[in-house]
Amino acid sequence: MAKQTKTTTEETKKTVQPGKTQVAAKPEANTIGTRVSELREFFEQSKGELKKVVWPTRKEVTATTIAVLVVVALMGLFLGVVDSLLSKLIQVVLS
């Protein structure tokens, strides 16, 4: 028969690295009830976080939308001009 030894909390503390805490293993929770409660908790926390969000005003949305459209138009124009110049340069080099 093998001799069983009990480890004391002091022995356990010695094996844990300094600064590290030992976490007890969670039992597997695969029941439907626990999944439903986890899902309910997730939605409750999500609702709380959405209440903290600072939503932009209509004026801010309009201003940023116009700024984005202007930048997109300018970049499109710039890239079109660069593409056109590079196409002509390649035609001159190849001909």
UniProtKB/TrEMBL annotation:
Residues 1-29 are annotated as: Disordered. One of its GO terms (cellular component) is plasma membrane. Belongs to the SecE/SEC61-gamma family. The chain crosses the membrane at residues 61-82. GO terms for biological process: intracellular protein transmembrane transport; protein secretion; protein targeting; protein transport by the Sec complex. It is found in: Cell membrane; Membrane. Essential subunit of the Sec protein translocation channel SecYEG. Clamps together the 2 halves of SecY. May contact the channel plug during translocation. It holds the Pfam family SecE. Keywords: Cell membrane, Membrane, Protein transport, Translocation, Transmembrane, Transmembrane helix, Transport. Component of the Sec protein translocase complex. Heterotrimer consisting of SecY, SecE and SecG subunits. The heterotrimers can form oligomers, although 1 heterotrimer is thought to be able to translocate proteins. Interacts with the ribosome. Interacts with SecDF, and other proteins may be involved. Interacts with SecA. This is Protein translocase subunit SecE. One of its GO terms (molecular function) is protein transmembrane transporter activity. It is a single-pass membrane protein. It comes from the Bacteria.
